[in-house]
């Protein structure tokens, strides 16, 4: 395996990069993409489970959080 540090990440296509991530990182990336989609359709900050608002403090700590604190717990 050649040494490919972060500075070489741009050489990879996104899908190949994702394939190299572990499950945790992949799950986080999926959550981020989902959050971006919700931002596009105007439901960002709305809990995907109960439909209530996600607290600003939670979004600051975890901007891609799909659910409010109540639903996450
Ligand atoms: Zn909720």
Itemize the secondary structure elements and their pairings.
Layout: H1 14-20, H2 23-41, H3 56-61, H4 69-72
The structure holds zinc ion.
Keywords:
0% strand, 73 residues, mainly alpha, Four Helix Bundle (Hemerythrin (Met), subunit A), binds zinc ion
Describe the structure.
The chain is built from four helices and no strands. The chain is 49% helix and 0% strand. The termini are far apart. It has a single domain, classed as Four Helix Bundle (Hemerythrin (Met), subunit A) (Up-down Bundle), CATH 1.20.120. The chain has helices at residues 14-20, 23-41, 56-61, 69-72. The protein is mostly helical. The protein is elongated, with a radius of gyration of 15 Å. The protein binds zinc ion. Zinc ion binds next to helix 4.
Question: What class, by secondary structure content?
Answer: mainly alpha
CA radius of gyration: 15 Å
At the fold tier of CATH, the topology name is: Four Helix Bundle (Hemerythrin (Met), subunit A)
Strand content: under 5%
Low-confidence stretches: none
Order of helices and strands: HHHH
The best one-word shape is: elongated
Work out the helicity level: 40-55%
Helical stretch tally: 4
**Count of β-strands:** 0
The number of domains is: 1
What's the short version?
The chain is mainly alpha-helical and 73 residues long. The chain contains 4 helices and no strands.
